Predict the structure.
Amino acid sequence: MGRIRVLVVDDSAVIRQLLTELLGRDPEIEVVGTAADPLLAREKIKRLNPDVLTLDVEMPRMDGLAFLENIMRLRPMPVVMVSTLTGRGADTTLQALALGAVDVISKPRLGEQRLEEYAEELAAKVKAAARARVQSPLRCGGARPPAAPPRRPVPRGDRIIAIGASAGGTEAIREVLEQMPADSPPVVLTQHIPGGFSRAFAERLDRHSPLVVREAEDGELIVPGHAYLPPGDRHLRVVREGGRWRCRIDDGPRVNRHRPSVDVLFHSLAEAAGAKTVAAILTGMGDDGARGLLELRQAGAATLVQDEATAVVGGMPGAAVRLGAAQEILPLERIPARLLELASV
């Protein structure tokens, strides 16, 4: 396979030039063109036939979401959203991921960020997108009604469900939580997402799930019927205190280049909950969570991963399978019911 051909779409000439330069540092990536707005981008997509599109969320002449919806309907292709960290930008970006964008990265903040680290993250997301299974645009901001929860055994009160995901995970987690009943065992989550988007993500999940979904607070008691996400750019751990589980939030070092890290969450659960845990790794790039899932399995937990056919990016589930960490490999639509079944054993 030759170099990955990228078209950069952004209304800022400075950002277009910077993204082109940063992507050009990777020998596996070639920026074949840039466009200042969606109408120009549409013509260049036809002419240049790129493998991946980086797309600004808010642009002139055509709304970025409308352009993305057109792309996914007429010429589905991998798209990485490049978003501002404003509240409006976060909401729009989550809608873009629902429309089929593979991943999101914040816009580079000149003078506030080490560009070497940003370039590495950007290149990794573009490479993962090039290998992604592009989703159809049928899901638009949760327009579908939530699926009815399956008939299920009553879950035990001493179980905890843990889920980790990365690229493609915002929609995969939504689909899982939509089918979790209001009396579900507690759910702890780690999703790789830029820090400025975490609150909007938690609020979106809360709207679409019978569970109460919230950003976790340090020391907060973990109770049934609730799902907990780490706040932006923080690790979430679970600790056992006085016979109860509590959230621990910290800004410790990045693990596997991520904060929050799935491995951090899973390692803590192996110590705090062990065999009382039911854990799953969903779609995502890289291998974060694989070693933690193996530790959980060795501690007696039930472990499963999303299958390659339904994962947008199969990196994280595949890494767990190769380590022998996964007891079961299931399509996404079967995971919610199986998590509940395992939590009732």
